[in-house]
Amino acid sequence: MTLDFYTFAKNIVKGVLTPSFRVKALGKEHIPKEGGVLICANHIDNLDPPIVGMTSPRDIHFMAKEELFQAPVLKGILPRVNAFPVKRGNSDRESLRKGLKLLKEGKAIGLFPEGTRSKTGELGEGLAGAGFFALRSDAVIIPCAIIGPYKFLRPLKVVYGPPINFTEYREQKISADEATRIIMEQIGKLISEHK
Q1: CA distances from 186 to 7, 53, 78, 145, 163 (A)
Q2: What DSSP element (H or E) covers 107?
């Protein structure tokens, strides 16, 4: 059986990053084995997507800023590891449609609701995109905390929390901003519990 490129890349990343940062993943059992899943994590380093990708039991489709798809090496790799582009700074309807389609097809999407890396390492405010996906799909919403720092041979933790029950929020028709706030609160809770 031949390995697909995603699995091949995941194994290489795991082999390099796990010993370098003594990566420990907790709560992986919270991620359902099938069906649409939205994994929402804090963003502290450029290595966050591969760290979440390698610790998740599911293959993840990440939204990545459009500029990365123009970078010489990355433009060939990103589509092969399930990433899809998003225009930052405005509501990118095409990427929102693509994300919803993937969730409806039962895929797992990885998002960093803050939209950009935190310069201080502190949890920032989330953008409405995460709330939009949470409200417009039937996906299971999994909060995820990446607890650094990214320093060679210093332990790095990735904590997946229990699913956030969005059934009630979907019925209440809360706004996407409010939905994102709920998700960010859960990420914040995981960070403070596991620091």
Answers
A1: 29, 20, 29, 9, 10
A2: none
Least confident stretch, 10-14, 63-67, 84-88, 138-142: 84-88
Residue 178: what are its φ and ψ, rounded to 5°? -65, -40
Query: Nearest-CA neighbor of 187 among 136, 147, 128?
Result: 147
What is the spatial distance between Cα 191 and Cα 195, in angstroms, rounded to a whole number?
A: 6
Cα–Cα distance, 38 to 138 (Å, whole number): 10
168 phi/psi in degrees, rounded to 5: -65, -45
Q: Which amino acid is at 37?
A: V
* Residue 5 to residue 15: CA distance in whole angstroms: 15
CB atoms near residue 181 (< 10 Å): 17
Helix (H) or strand (E) holding 97: helix 93-104
Model pLDDT, residue 90: 60
Task: With H, G, I as helix, E, B as strand and everything else as coil, classify residue 145.
Answer: strand
Query: What size, in residues, is the chain?
Result: 195
Tell me the per-residue pLDDT of 39-78, one tens digit each, with 9 for 90 and over. Answer: 999 999 999 999 999 999 999 999 888 888 888 888 889 9
Phi, psi of 111 (to 5 degrees): -130, 150
The answer to whether 59 and 130 are in contact (CB under 8 A) is no
Q: At residue 174, what is the residue type? A: I
Closest CA to 108 of 186, 179, 53: 53
How many whole angstroms separate alpha carbon 96 and alpha carbon 63?
Answer: 10
